[in-house]
Amino acid sequence: METNGLRKNLDALKAFYPGNAEGELRHLGGDVLKGLPVWIKESIQLYDFSLEGLGAPLYLAVPKENITLEHLTRIYRQLAEKLDAHIIVIADHMPPKHRPLLVKYRIPFIYKDESIFAPELGLKFGKLKKFEPKLKFDLENKNETLTPFALKLIAGLLTNKIPQEFTHKFLHQKLSEQTKLSSSKLNPTLNELAANGFLHIQGSGPTKTYTKNEIQKIWEKTLATSFAPFFREVQTNYIPNDRSAYSIAGETALAQYSNLASPKQTTIAMTAGAFRSVYQGKLKDTIPFGDFDKPSVVQIWKEDPHLFSADGVLNPIEVFFSMRNHPDDRVQIALDEMLNTYGLTRNKE
Fold first, then answer.
1. Is residue 91 a contact partner of residue 110, using CB atoms and an 8 Å limit?
2. For 112-141, how does the pLDDT look when each residue is reduced to its tens digit (9 = 90+)?
3. Cross-strand bridge partners of residue 59
Protein backbone atom coordinates (compact mmCIF):
# COMPACT_ATOMS: atom_id res chain seq x y z
CA MET A 1 0.00 0.00 0.00
CA GLU A 2 1.41 3.37 -1.02
CA THR A 3 1.49 6.28 1.41
CA ASN A 4 -1.33 7.96 -0.52
CA GLY A 5 -3.46 4.90 0.14
CA LEU A 6 -3.34 5.67 3.84
CA ARG A 7 -4.88 9.11 3.42
CA LYS A 8 -8.30 8.15 4.76
CA ASN A 9 -6.73 6.51 7.81
CA LEU A 10 -4.64 9.61 8.48
CA ASP A 11 -7.58 11.98 8.09
CA ALA A 12 -9.56 9.93 10.62
CA LEU A 13 -6.71 10.01 13.15
CA LYS A 14 -6.17 13.74 12.67
CA ALA A 15 -9.85 14.34 13.41
CA PHE A 16 -9.26 12.98 16.92
CA TYR A 17 -6.04 14.97 17.45
CA PRO A 18 -6.63 18.29 15.66
CA GLY A 19 -3.50 20.39 15.45
CA ASN A 20 -1.28 17.71 17.00
CA ALA A 21 -0.05 15.99 13.84
CA GLU A 22 3.62 16.66 13.21
CA GLY A 23 5.02 16.40 9.69
CA GLU A 24 4.28 13.70 7.15
CA LEU A 25 3.91 9.95 7.36
CA ARG A 26 7.36 8.35 7.38
CA HIS A 27 8.18 4.81 6.27
CA LEU A 28 10.37 3.05 8.83
CA GLY A 29 13.43 1.19 7.62
CA GLY A 30 14.76 -2.21 8.58
CA ASP A 31 16.59 -0.92 11.67
CA VAL A 32 13.31 -0.73 13.58
CA LEU A 33 12.57 -4.38 12.80
CA LYS A 34 16.11 -5.56 13.43
CA GLY A 35 16.20 -8.87 15.26
CA LEU A 36 12.75 -10.01 14.12
CA PRO A 37 12.29 -13.02 11.82
CA VAL A 38 12.60 -12.41 8.09
CA TRP A 39 9.03 -13.56 7.45
CA ILE A 40 7.73 -10.76 9.67
CA LYS A 41 9.77 -8.14 7.83
CA GLU A 42 8.37 -9.40 4.52
CA SER A 43 4.79 -9.50 5.79
CA ILE A 44 4.36 -5.97 7.10
CA GLN A 45 5.35 -2.35 6.55
CA LEU A 46 5.62 0.18 9.37
CA TYR A 47 4.97 3.90 9.15
CA ASP A 48 5.65 6.52 11.81
CA PHE A 49 2.82 9.00 12.32
CA SER A 50 3.90 11.62 14.86
CA LEU A 51 1.23 12.93 17.22
CA GLU A 52 2.18 15.29 20.03
CA GLY A 53 1.35 14.29 23.60
CA LEU A 54 0.89 10.52 23.20
CA GLY A 55 3.97 9.78 25.30
CA ALA A 56 5.18 7.16 22.78
CA PRO A 57 5.53 6.88 18.98
CA LEU A 58 2.51 5.89 16.93
CA TYR A 59 3.22 3.29 14.26
CA LEU A 60 0.79 2.30 11.51
CA ALA A 61 1.30 -1.33 10.51
CA VAL A 62 0.29 -2.25 6.95
CA PRO A 63 0.07 -6.05 6.45
CA LYS A 64 0.25 -7.87 3.12
CA GLU A 65 -3.17 -8.30 1.54
CA ASN A 66 -3.13 -12.10 1.75
CA ILE A 67 -1.88 -12.37 5.34
CA THR A 68 -3.74 -14.77 7.63
CA LEU A 69 -5.27 -13.59 10.89
CA GLU A 70 -3.06 -16.04 12.80
CA HIS A 71 0.10 -14.60 11.27
CA LEU A 72 -1.05 -11.02 11.83
CA THR A 73 -1.76 -11.79 15.49
CA ARG A 74 1.73 -13.27 15.94
CA ILE A 75 3.31 -10.28 14.18
CA TYR A 76 1.44 -7.77 16.33
CA ARG A 77 2.41 -9.55 19.56
CA GLN A 78 6.10 -9.57 18.62
CA LEU A 79 6.05 -5.93 17.51
CA ALA A 80 4.30 -4.88 20.73
CA GLU A 81 6.90 -6.75 22.76
CA LYS A 82 9.86 -5.29 20.87
CA LEU A 83 8.76 -1.68 20.27
CA ASP A 84 7.88 0.87 22.94
CA ALA A 85 5.17 2.40 20.79
CA HIS A 86 1.46 2.49 20.00
CA ILE A 87 0.78 0.21 17.02
CA ILE A 88 -2.38 0.40 14.89
CA VAL A 89 -2.99 -2.17 12.15
CA ILE A 90 -4.41 -0.89 8.85
CA ALA A 91 -7.33 -3.25 8.17
CA ASP A 92 -8.44 -1.78 4.83
CA HIS A 93 -7.70 -4.93 2.81
CA MET A 94 -8.60 -7.51 5.44
CA PRO A 95 -11.85 -9.53 5.18
CA PRO A 96 -14.69 -7.83 7.08
CA LYS A 97 -15.18 -10.95 9.21
CA HIS A 98 -11.69 -10.44 10.69
CA ARG A 99 -12.41 -7.05 12.25
CA PRO A 100 -14.54 -8.44 15.13
CA LEU A 101 -11.75 -10.95 15.79
CA LEU A 102 -9.20 -8.14 16.00
CA VAL A 103 -11.36 -6.61 18.72
CA LYS A 104 -11.60 -9.98 20.48
CA TYR A 105 -7.81 -10.39 20.48
CA ARG A 106 -7.29 -6.72 21.52
CA ILE A 107 -5.36 -5.81 18.38
CA PRO A 108 -5.75 -2.07 17.62
CA PHE A 109 -6.82 -1.36 14.04
CA ILE A 110 -8.30 1.30 11.83
CA TYR A 111 -10.48 0.62 8.78
CA LYS A 112 -10.33 3.43 6.21
CA ASP A 113 -12.06 6.47 7.72
CA GLU A 114 -15.01 4.39 8.94
CA SER A 115 -14.03 2.61 12.16
CA ILE A 116 -11.23 2.46 14.70
CA PHE A 117 -10.41 0.26 17.69
CA ALA A 118 -7.47 1.48 19.78
CA PRO A 119 -8.28 1.05 23.50
CA GLU A 120 -4.87 2.28 24.70
CA LEU A 121 -5.60 5.59 23.01
CA GLY A 122 -9.17 5.63 24.29
CA LEU A 123 -10.56 5.28 20.75
CA LYS A 124 -13.34 2.83 19.86
CA PHE A 125 -15.77 4.06 17.22
CA GLY A 126 -17.72 2.24 14.56
CA LYS A 127 -19.00 5.27 12.65
CA LEU A 128 -16.28 7.88 12.26
CA LYS A 129 -18.16 9.91 9.66
CA LYS A 130 -20.18 11.66 12.34
CA PHE A 131 -16.96 13.08 13.79
CA GLU A 132 -15.95 14.80 10.57
CA PRO A 133 -15.77 18.55 11.18
CA LYS A 134 -18.19 20.64 9.17
CA LEU A 135 -16.54 23.26 7.04
CA LYS A 136 -17.44 26.80 7.99
CA PHE A 137 -15.99 30.27 7.87
CA ASP A 138 -14.79 31.56 11.22
CA LEU A 139 -14.23 35.30 11.10
CA GLU A 140 -13.86 35.67 14.86
CA ASN A 141 -10.56 35.56 16.67
CA LYS A 142 -9.97 32.14 18.15
CA ASN A 143 -9.09 31.93 21.84
CA GLU A 144 -5.54 30.83 22.49
CA THR A 145 -5.29 27.63 24.49
CA LEU A 146 -2.78 26.99 27.25
CA THR A 147 -0.87 23.74 27.53
CA PRO A 148 -1.61 20.95 30.05
CA PHE A 149 1.64 21.86 31.82
CA ALA A 150 0.42 25.45 32.19
CA LEU A 151 -2.74 24.11 33.86
CA LYS A 152 -0.53 22.04 36.17
CA LEU A 153 1.45 25.10 37.26
CA ILE A 154 -1.74 27.13 37.71
CA ALA A 155 -3.00 24.37 40.02
CA GLY A 156 0.21 24.74 42.03
CA LEU A 157 -0.28 28.51 42.22
CA LEU A 158 -3.91 28.30 43.36
CA THR A 159 -3.27 25.64 46.03
CA ASN A 160 -0.11 27.36 47.30
CA LYS A 161 2.10 24.45 46.28
CA ILE A 162 4.21 27.10 44.53
CA PRO A 163 5.49 29.97 46.72
CA GLN A 164 4.52 33.59 46.27
CA GLU A 165 7.91 34.48 44.81
CA PHE A 166 10.46 32.21 43.16
CA THR A 167 13.18 31.91 40.54
CA HIS A 168 13.28 29.49 37.64
CA LYS A 169 16.11 27.53 39.28
CA PHE A 170 14.29 27.24 42.61
CA LEU A 171 11.03 26.05 41.06
CA HIS A 172 12.79 23.58 38.78
CA GLN A 173 14.59 22.02 41.73
CA LYS A 174 11.37 21.89 43.76
CA LEU A 175 9.33 20.25 41.01
CA SER A 176 12.14 17.85 40.06
CA GLU A 177 11.90 16.36 43.55
CA GLN A 178 8.40 15.13 42.64
CA THR A 179 8.56 14.36 38.90
CA LYS A 180 10.90 14.26 35.93
CA LEU A 181 11.08 17.75 34.47
CA SER A 182 13.45 19.38 32.03
CA SER A 183 14.48 22.98 32.55
CA SER A 184 13.75 23.73 28.89
CA LYS A 185 10.10 22.76 29.41
CA LEU A 186 9.58 24.92 32.49
CA ASN A 187 10.99 28.20 31.18
CA PRO A 188 8.63 28.82 28.22
CA THR A 189 5.61 27.84 30.33
CA LEU A 190 6.52 30.36 33.03
CA ASN A 191 6.89 33.03 30.36
CA GLU A 192 3.53 31.96 28.87
CA LEU A 193 1.86 32.37 32.27
CA ALA A 194 3.49 35.76 32.74
CA ALA A 195 2.31 36.88 29.30
CA ASN A 196 -1.25 35.92 30.26
CA GLY A 197 -1.17 37.77 33.60
CA PHE A 198 -0.87 34.81 35.98
CA LEU A 199 2.64 35.84 37.03
CA HIS A 200 4.69 39.02 37.25
CA ILE A 201 8.36 39.15 36.26
CA GLN A 202 11.07 41.19 37.92
CA GLY A 203 14.66 41.40 36.73
CA SER A 204 16.25 39.37 33.96
CA GLY A 205 18.73 36.59 33.38
CA PRO A 206 19.75 34.45 36.38
CA THR A 207 18.22 36.99 38.78
CA LYS A 208 14.80 36.95 37.10
CA THR A 209 12.10 36.52 39.74
CA TYR A 210 8.51 35.41 39.23
CA THR A 211 5.78 36.68 41.55
CA LYS A 212 2.24 35.29 41.74
CA ASN A 213 -0.65 37.56 40.88
CA GLU A 214 -3.47 37.79 43.42
CA ILE A 215 -5.15 34.41 43.88
CA GLN A 216 -8.59 35.74 42.93
CA LYS A 217 -7.22 37.27 39.72
CA ILE A 218 -5.41 34.04 38.87
CA TRP A 219 -8.65 32.14 39.43
CA GLU A 220 -10.71 34.52 37.28
CA LYS A 221 -8.17 34.27 34.47
CA THR A 222 -8.13 30.48 34.79
CA LEU A 223 -11.92 30.22 34.47
CA ALA A 224 -11.79 32.35 31.32
CA THR A 225 -8.93 30.38 29.76
CA SER A 226 -9.15 27.52 27.28
CA PHE A 227 -6.82 24.58 27.83
CA ALA A 228 -5.61 22.00 25.36
CA PRO A 229 -6.88 18.44 26.11
CA PHE A 230 -4.97 17.19 29.12
CA PHE A 231 -6.13 13.59 29.59
CA ARG A 232 -8.01 10.73 27.98
CA GLU A 233 -9.88 7.80 29.50
CA VAL A 234 -9.96 4.04 29.13
CA GLN A 235 -11.99 1.46 31.05
CA THR A 236 -10.57 -1.69 32.61
CA ASN A 237 -11.44 -4.37 35.14
CA TYR A 238 -7.92 -4.19 36.56
CA ILE A 239 -5.99 -1.55 38.49
CA PRO A 240 -2.25 -1.39 39.27
CA ASN A 241 -1.09 -3.56 42.14
CA ASP A 242 1.34 -0.80 43.17
CA ARG A 243 -0.63 2.03 44.82
CA SER A 244 2.14 4.52 44.04
CA ALA A 245 1.62 3.98 40.32
CA TYR A 246 -1.51 6.14 40.22
CA SER A 247 -3.44 8.97 41.85
CA ILE A 248 -7.13 8.96 42.76
CA ALA A 249 -9.09 11.08 40.26
CA GLY A 250 -12.56 11.91 38.92
CA GLU A 251 -15.60 11.36 41.14
CA THR A 252 -13.52 9.14 43.41
CA ALA A 253 -11.26 12.11 44.18
CA LEU A 254 -14.17 14.53 44.42
CA ALA A 255 -15.77 12.30 47.07
CA GLN A 256 -12.65 12.79 49.20
CA TYR A 257 -12.70 16.56 48.76
CA SER A 258 -16.43 16.95 49.48
CA ASN A 259 -19.53 15.28 50.90
CA LEU A 260 -20.24 13.48 47.63
CA ALA A 261 -20.89 9.78 48.20
CA SER A 262 -18.13 7.50 46.94
CA PRO A 263 -19.06 6.30 43.44
CA LYS A 264 -19.31 2.62 42.54
CA GLN A 265 -16.98 3.20 39.61
CA THR A 266 -13.40 3.95 40.68
CA THR A 267 -11.37 6.51 38.72
CA ILE A 268 -7.57 6.68 38.81
CA ALA A 269 -5.02 8.83 36.97
CA MET A 270 -1.65 7.84 35.52
CA THR A 271 0.93 9.12 33.08
CA ALA A 272 1.10 7.49 29.66
CA GLY A 273 4.45 5.96 30.58
CA ALA A 274 3.11 4.45 33.80
CA PHE A 275 0.06 3.14 31.95
CA ARG A 276 2.19 1.34 29.38
CA SER A 277 4.51 -0.03 32.04
CA VAL A 278 1.65 -1.48 34.10
CA TYR A 279 -0.87 -2.61 31.51
CA GLN A 280 1.67 -3.87 28.99
CA GLY A 281 3.81 -5.43 31.70
CA LYS A 282 3.49 -8.62 33.69
CA LEU A 283 0.14 -9.91 34.90
CA LYS A 284 1.21 -9.48 38.51
CA ASP A 285 1.39 -5.69 37.95
CA THR A 286 -2.42 -5.47 38.06
CA ILE A 287 -5.19 -6.86 40.24
CA PRO A 288 -8.88 -7.42 39.38
CA PHE A 289 -11.01 -4.48 40.49
CA GLY A 290 -14.59 -3.32 39.89
CA ASP A 291 -17.74 -5.04 38.73
CA PHE A 292 -18.06 -6.47 35.23
CA ASP A 293 -20.71 -3.89 34.32
CA LYS A 294 -18.93 -1.08 36.20
CA PRO A 295 -15.26 -1.26 35.17
CA SER A 296 -12.75 1.14 36.64
CA VAL A 297 -11.79 4.27 34.70
CA VAL A 298 -8.13 5.01 34.02
CA GLN A 299 -7.40 8.61 33.10
CA ILE A 300 -4.14 8.92 31.15
CA TRP A 301 -2.80 12.41 31.84
CA LYS A 302 -0.30 14.29 29.75
CA GLU A 303 1.29 15.64 32.94
CA ASP A 304 2.20 13.67 36.05
CA PRO A 305 -0.91 13.40 38.30
CA HIS A 306 1.36 12.94 41.33
CA LEU A 307 2.67 16.51 40.99
CA PHE A 308 0.77 18.73 43.49
CA SER A 309 -1.40 15.77 44.54
CA ALA A 310 -2.54 15.46 48.16
CA ASP A 311 -2.03 12.06 49.83
CA GLY A 312 -2.30 10.29 46.49
CA VAL A 313 -5.36 12.27 45.33
CA LEU A 314 -5.21 14.44 42.21
CA ASN A 315 -5.05 18.13 43.12
CA PRO A 316 -8.47 19.84 43.36
CA ILE A 317 -7.91 22.33 40.55
CA GLU A 318 -7.29 19.62 37.99
CA VAL A 319 -10.17 17.60 39.44
CA PHE A 320 -12.41 20.62 38.85
CA PHE A 321 -11.32 21.23 35.27
CA SER A 322 -11.65 17.55 34.42
CA MET A 323 -15.27 17.56 35.68
CA ARG A 324 -16.56 21.12 35.28
CA ASN A 325 -18.96 20.04 32.49
CA HIS A 326 -20.28 16.98 34.31
CA PRO A 327 -24.09 16.73 33.80
CA ASP A 328 -24.92 15.52 37.34
CA ASP A 329 -26.14 18.30 39.67
CA ARG A 330 -24.76 16.41 42.67
CA VAL A 331 -21.30 16.56 41.14
CA GLN A 332 -21.62 20.28 40.43
CA ILE A 333 -22.60 20.96 44.05
CA ALA A 334 -19.65 18.88 45.24
CA LEU A 335 -17.28 20.79 42.93
CA ASP A 336 -18.39 24.09 44.46
CA GLU A 337 -17.95 22.63 47.94
CA MET A 338 -14.41 21.57 47.05
CA LEU A 339 -13.55 24.98 45.61
CA ASN A 340 -14.93 26.79 48.67
CA THR A 341 -12.36 24.98 50.80
CA TYR A 342 -9.70 26.91 48.91
CA GLY A 343 -11.61 30.20 48.95
CA LEU A 344 -12.58 29.90 45.30
CA THR A 345 -15.98 30.36 43.69
CA ARG A 346 -17.17 30.34 40.11
CA ASN A 347 -19.71 32.51 38.38
CA LYS A 348 -22.83 30.52 37.56
CA GLU A 349 -24.16 31.16 34.09
1. yes
2. 878 888 887 777 776 655 545 444 444 344
3. 48, 87
